[in-house]
Amino acid sequence: MSGSSFGKLFRITSWGESHGLAVGVVIDGCPAGLPLEAEDIQRYLDRRRPGQSKYTTRRNESDTAEILSGVFEGKTTGTPICIAVYNKDQRSRDYGEIAYTFRPGHADYPFKEKYGFRDYRGGGRSSGRETIARVAAGAVASLLLKELGIKVMAYAKAIGPVTIPEEEYRLDEINENSFYMPGNAYAEKAGEYVSSLMSQTDSCGGIIECRADGLPVGLGETAFDKLDALLAQAVMSIGAVKGVEIGDGFAAAASTGSRNNDPFYMKDGKVCKKTNHSGGTLGGMSDGSQLILRAAVKPTSSIAKKQHTVNESGEDVEISIHGRHDPVIVPRAVVVVESMTAVTLADLLLQNMGARMDHLRKIYLP
Ligand SMILES: Cc1cc2nc3c(=O)[nH]c(=O)nc-3n(C[C@H](O)[C@H](O)[C@H](O)COP(=O)(O)O)c2cc1C
Q1: Is the Cβ atom of 132 under 6 angstroms away from ligand 1?
Q2: Which residue's CA is the nearest one to ligand 1's atom 23?
Q3: 163 contact partners, CB below 8 Å, separation of at least 6
Q4: Which atom of ligand 1 is nearest to the CA of 127?
Q5: Is 106 in the pocket of ligand 1 (CB under 6 A)?
Q6: d(Cα 114, Cα 125) in Å, to the nearest integer?
Q7: Which of 218, 233, 237, 281 has the most crowded CB, counting CB atoms within 10 A?
Q8: Ligand 1 centroid distance, CA of 128 (Å)
Q9: Are 152 and 212 in contact (CB under 8 A)?
């Protein structure tokens, strides 16, 4: 099974299954000399951990990060960094009744057809637990970005139909509510909506927004490795993400050229933009303005409400998925989107060093 690695120079490989011994990541290509402790990774993992509010699954996973390699005396060594999180609360018996039934909205059916088997204990590689690897890598990438003055931040813009308009954002409230929304009043409304769905044994989705500040001009390439194309792959590869837009995204289709273009102007000898409909990218490269992307997250597939499906014997059956599932995935996926954005940017920063001869001369002929 291929496709578990992402990035060229800052290259991450995600490994492990939900019901195996552990899940984790190998980061190859992180420069030596970056201060890194297990607590730096733990802070990120704690943001995606279940069981932190009544709207996330009651699983009691401690998800403790252990650095197995690549760090010496608190700094990266330039060799592969392996981070493992041992699976402690994966109770296989919870999944018994669904072992031979294809759960609607999950990878069960295509996975079984493709590989001829399926890990009947749970999602295996298709489980949300795979995103632990992404978050651990994102923690390291974010430290690298921070050293270069770049900050990435994600939050929930919408939970179901409850959407916060940009002019009402209160960024200081993101960590004060269960949904990571930039507005406690909206989070309260979202809570009412999610509670009503929970009483109907149903689930909902939402929108995660991510912004990056401090990017230099020119990250990303002009053809297949465009900044926006790589971000789309990075974020669309997260389970349950069904759409990614950069800047005005789909709304740009209904705009006009005169409204959608971002006029340039000079300020203190620097080229600036009056607006940022493009979301910080032009022609596949960062343009020096704020990067803005959004991810549409579908409603949680595992619901206790009765659904029609088929089992592995080819019989039509009803399924009702009990056990421990979030009524909305968005709050736990916020840090996953932030992490995949950080990983993509870290990789492109390293790649960009070889873009010009004068950059190379600066490194090799100081
Ligand atoms: C952090 C995270 C946690 C998730 N937890 C659940 C969950 O508890 N229940 C569920 O049905 N899906 C969960 N998912 C989503 C499924 O993994 C995903 O919908 C499924 O594998 C099908 O893939 P697709 O939606 O990309 O087609 C989670 C996703 C993420 C990113």
Answers
A1: no
A2: 239
A3: 157, 186, 207
A4: 17
A5: yes
A6: 14
A7: 281
A8: 5
A9: yes
How many angstroms separate the alpha carbon of residue 190 from the centre of ligand 1?
20
Decide whether any atom of ligand 1 lies within 6 Å of the 240 Cβ.
Answer: yes
Ligand 1 centre and the CA of 127: distance in Å?
Answer: 6
- Supply the CATH classification number for the domain 5-364: 3.60.150.10
Full pLDDT tens readout for the chain, 366 residues: 689 999 999 999 999 998 899 999 999 999 999 999 999 999 999 999 866 777 766 555 589 999 999 999 999 999 999 999 999 876 555 566 678 899 999 999 999 999 999 888 877 888 999 999 999 999 999 999 999 999 999 999 999 999 999 999 999 999 999 999 999 999 999 999 999 999 999 999 999 999 999 999 999 999 999 999 999 999 999 999 999 999 999 999 999 999 999 999 999 999 999 999 999 999 999 999 999 999 999 999 999 999 999 999 999 999 999 877 899 999 999 999 999 999 999 999 999 999 999 999 999 997
Give the span between the Cα atoms of 64 and 235, in whole angstroms. Answer: 24
Hey, where are the domains in the chain?
5-364
Would you call 321 exposed, middle or buried from its count of C-beta atoms within 10 A (0-12, 13-18, 19+)? buried
Task: Give the global pTM.
Answer: 0.96
